Fold:
Amino acid sequence: MGGFNPYIKEPIISQAQKKFRITFLPEGKTIEIDPNLSLSSENGLPGSILDCALAQGISIEHACGGVCACSTCHILIQQGAEACSPSTENEEDQLEKAPGLSSQSRLACQCVPNGSQDLIVRIPHWNRNPKTFIQK
Structure:
């Protein structure tokens, strides 16, 4: 499923222009994102944390297919939040349904890093399956 919900306004995002890294906690798995390569999972907004993670074998729950219609891809941006697209009203509405909401909370399907800095992302224990977190 693609990353756009036809029932909500498409967010304005800036795609990354240079390489950057995302480290996923608690496992400590780091992936490098190269915007010149066309790796995509076709889940979430193009270039979103969900899209990048799935394309490189990191499993993040996403019941709606990454179209901002649930809160199962809830993540916490522990470092680099200022390099991410701003949250929209629709994302905020979905996040209100997520457990463990904090000021670092984002939906992985809607959060698009611009590549200006590396990120550290925590996947809450209730949103990950330890057996499928790192796929080979």
